[in-house]
Design a protein that fits this description.
Creatine Amidinohydrolase, four-stranded antiparallel β-sheet, two-stranded antiparallel ribbon, globular, X-Pro_aminopeptidase_P, protease, Pept_M24, Peptidase_M24_C, aminopeptidase
Length: 215
């Protein structure tokens, strides 16, 4: 909690992580984004990009039904592991509909139940460097049936519709499949959020959204 003793002024020259959420009659949100309004260091940019890669890799993973979350969790770590980085927190937790923000027993730990269509979970890899900066990307995802020849296989559909910070993404690290995923995600954000911002006459927000979701 902020206090007069510990508070300090934010500057444009550092990373800013904001963990947001609300509970509504028709659902619960839990979304984290990390931004940098200045010039990020090479390490900050690479670490952020690799956290994003892990988020994308887990979000687009196709896996057999009745697979435990702990079996697929490593795909969120792999891009960080490739350069000797890691995070020490959970990769995600179940999210209730107008119930608990952290809802048992869904998630990616060894003692969670197998994933099944209709479950909501967060997907939230990150990276923290003590005393310097913290990164986390958190989305809410719905477990859905995958479009595969053999049934039943599952995958995730990210339902959080918030762009990632372009200033922190090193495109040279992303695979063509990851870039394709991002473009598809941004197209969905434009189509679903853009008209609502226009309806509410939030022109500044609409302009920001168009800029932040360019291919």
């Amino acid at each position: 909690s902020p206090s007069n003793g510990s508070s300090r002024t934010l500057s444009a020259g550092e990373m800013y992580l904001f963990d947001t959420g609300g509970q509504y009659l028709d659902g619960t949100t839990d979304i984290t984004r990390t931004v940098h309004w200045g010039q990020p260091t090479p390490l900050q940019k690479e670490a952020y990009t690799r956290v994003l890669m892990g988020s994308i890799d887990l979000s687009r993973l196709v896996f057999p039904s009745n697979t435990a979350g702990g079996m697929v969790e490593s795909s969120a770590h792999r891009a960080l592991w490739d350069i000797g980085l890691n995070y020490g927190h959970g990769t995600g937790h179940g999210i209730g509909n107008f119930l608990s923000v952290h809802e048992w027993p869904v998630g990616f730990q060894s003692n969670n139940v197998p994933l099944a269509a209709g479950m909501f979970t967060s997907i939230e890899p990150g990276y923290y460097r003590d005393g310097e900066f913290g990164i986390r990307i958190e989305d809410v995802a719905l477990v859905v049936e995958a479009q595969t020849k053999e049934k039943p296989f599952l995958t995730f559909e990210v339902v959080s519709l918030v762009p990632y910070d372009r200033n922190l993404i090193d495109l040279s690290l992303l695979s063509p499949e990851q870039i394709q995923y991002l473009n598809s995600y941004y197209k969905k954000i434009r189509e679903r959020v853009g008209p609502e911002l226009q309806r509410q006459q939030l022109e500044e927000a609409y302009k920001w959204l168009q800029e932040s979701t360019k291919p």
